[in-house]
Structure formats: C-alpha cells, structure tokens
Amino acid sequence: MKLSHMKVFHSEGIQGAIAIVFTAMLDDVANTEADISPVTDIVAATSTDIGAIAGGIADLTKTFSDMSSKIERLKTYFICRELDITYRINHEHMIVKE
Q1: Angle at 20 between CA 18 and CA 25, to 5 degrees
Q2: Cα–Cα distance for residue pair 3/18, rounded to 1 Å
Q3: Distance CA 43, CA 45 (A)
C-alpha cells in the first residue's frame, strides 16, 4: 500500500480503507482485462483459422471421394473393355475353327 493511501486510511477511518482496497481491486481487474484482451483477440483469430482449415479439409475429402469414384468407374470401364475384347477374340477364334 502506498504512503498516500496510508494517510487516507488514518484520516478517513475504515470506510476510507475499504474504498482504497476496492479501488485497488478495480484497478487490478482493469489491468488484468487489458492483459487478457490481446490473448482473447489471438484466440478468436486462431478459431477463425481453425475453421478455415476445417473447411479446406472438408473440400479435400470431397475431392478425394470424387476422384475415388472416378477411378472406380474407369476400372469398371477397362474391365468391361477387356472382357469385350476377350469375348471378340474368343468368338472370332470359334468362327475360324468352324
């Protein structure tokens, strides 16, 4: 406690002392809020960044899913194409034998 506060305490009694303590507490709260404010801003910005990253991951997941589906269709196409070629070769072979 500062010397000036001690003088007030002696001149104003208990009420003055209580006022000094509450004033000091309010000053501490204000200082703490000032210290916390930048941290709150950083947390808010980080939350926004995390949201953007989550959106990017969702987009990538959809892209991978779409690509997987296209790959499966291509595999099916090539299998059918191979079966068709095999059938034609076998069918032509049977015709030649007859």
Answers
A1: 95
A2: 16
A3: 5
